[in-house]
Design brief:
The complex is a heterodimer.
Chain A lengths: L4 E3 L2 E4 L5 E6 L6 E7 L5 E8 L14 E5 L5 E5 L8 E8 L9 E2 L3 E5 L1
Parallel strand pairs in A: 2-10
Antiparallel strand pairs in A: 1-3, 3-7, 4-5, 4-8, 6-7, 8-9, 8-10
Chain B lengths: L2 E3 L4 E5 L4 E3 L2 E3 L5 E7 L5 E7 L5 E3 L5 E5 L4 E6 L8 E8 L10 E2 L3 E6 L1
Parallel strand pairs in B: 2-12
Antiparallel strand pairs in B: 1-4, 3-9, 5-6, 5-10, 7-8, 8-9, 10-11, 10-12
The chains are: A mainly beta, B mainly beta.
């Protein structure tokens, strides 16, 4: 079946604008994760959704970042008043279950450039 | 604090030779350990993971990794490297504790360059 998909694949925006990034997880996967990958660095965890449980927002870097997951499927990551340091690749992942042993499958990412 | 270290920014290997990409971790208790590979302009692809049992884990594309509890390491290995293995490799860890958290802790990544 289809893997995790993300849109847009690339986004260029001006400092101060808001952006929305979309993630479609693998069908049937109950857990969804957002990570950020800055140039030349590893991945930083942002937020995690599991079913109807309260999301784990512990990785969100500031209150300009928010995310929602509607109907237990599609997720949107919103960055308000973007700053140049927000430039990064934003990766979404999903897993079949929330168990810690579960494999996370990643999408291709959205490359965000803030001018 | 949990952390993952990949001590080599880059590993260079000749095609046909064995390769090792190193990973050490700092996590309380026994962690779950993962390796992912990232090709240019693409997302991460899962290679293998250690959950429990046999310390030697076999994964995709002929890769394997050995969990060493005493050395807190999980090095990625392949007996014979291919040019097509050239990519960025990430080690990641997840602890076995309780609580509602899903995050993987990633290393900084190691670029593998396989030369013909």
């Amino acid at each position: 079946g289809a893997g995790v998909s993300q849109s847009p694949s690339n986004k260029v925006t001006e400092k101060g604008k808001d952006v929305e990034l979309r993630c479609d997880p693998i069908s049937g996967h109950t857990a969804l994760y957002w990570y950020r990958q800055r140039l030349g660095q590893g991945l930083e965890f942002l937020i995690y959704f599991q079913g109807n449980s309260a999301p784990d927002k512990s990785g969100l870097p500031s209150d300009r970042f928010s995310a929602e997951r509607t109907g237990g499927s599609v997720s949107t990551l919103t960055i308000q008043r973007t700053q140049q340091e927000d430039s990064a690749v934003y990766l979404c992942a999903s897993s079949l279950e929330a168990e810690r042993r579960a494999t996370q499958y990643f999408g291709p990412g959205t490359r965000l450039l803030v001018l | 604090a949990q952390s993952v270290a990949q001590p080599e920014d880059q590993v260079n290997v000749a095609e046909g030779n064995p390769l090792t990409v190193k990973c050490t971790y700092s996590v309380s208790g026994n962690p779950y350990l993962f390796w992912y590979v990232q090709y240019p302009n693409r997302g991460l692809q899962f290679l293998l993971k250690y959950i429990t049992g046999d310390n030697l884990v076999k994964g995709s594309y002929g890769f394997e990794a050995e969990f060493n509890k005493s050395q807190t390491s999980f090095h990625l290995k392949k007996p014979s490297a291919l040019v097509s293995d050239s990519a960025l490799y990430f080690c990641a860890v997840r602890d076995r504790g309780s609580g509602n958290t899903g995050k993987l802790i990633f290393g900084q990544g190691t670029t593998l360059q396989v030369k013909p």
